Amino acid sequence: MRRSAQEAQRTRDRIVRVAVNQASSVGLSGLTIGSLADALGMSKAGVVGPFGSRGALQSAALTEAVDMFTEAVVTPCLAAAPGRDRLHAVIDAWCAYLAHSPFPNGCFVTAASCELDGQPGELRAHLLQTVTRWRNFLREQIVSAQAAGQLAPDHDVDDLVSTLNGIAMAANQEIQLLGDDSASARARRLMYAALGMAGGERTPHGG
């Protein structure tokens, strides 16, 4: 029984990994059971079975993509002290992630945001929660840095959060559409400049 449960989990994980890669290229809306079945060498029933519906499979793919972003950008930065040190770590990891995205079509959340922002439903609600959590995380680090006297206190926090996200989204377009290899380094400089922090002239890790 335990082996069957483990095998079922491995199958589910394999389906989700392929679904994430496909959705990165064709969008979550373009993700079909048939294309996944062909890619996995499975029946359609075998693909959808672990999830119960196509919608649940799409949601699982989005969750996996978000988890990958969290592991690459957020988790490693938590060892740094809140505030300026953590902002340094976040910006460096974020820009390195943009330069070397694990997804075929760049930042998954950015692509999903463009795809789903005008499509009400469970997937959009899921994405909204994800983006809100990320923005709140950035906001907490900026507030901590301001409270510690590490950032100018007169800068509006929400303006800074929007600026950082806008820079990242622009860099993703420059990397994916324009093929600009300098985009991640530029994004890093602009993020540091927006926050009024020194150190943005260094090349991001891996960039």
UniProtKB/TrEMBL annotation:
Transmembrane segments: none annotated. Keywords: DNA-binding, Transcription, Transcription regulation. It comes from the Bacteria. Residues 32-51 bind DNA. InterPro entries: Homeodomain-like_sf, HTH_TetR, Tet_transcr_reg_TetR-rel_C_sf, TetR_C. Residues 9-69 form the HTH tetR-type domain. Pfam families: TetR_C_13. The keyword Transcription applies. This is TetR/AcrR family transcriptional regulator. It comes from Streptomyces cinerochromogenes.
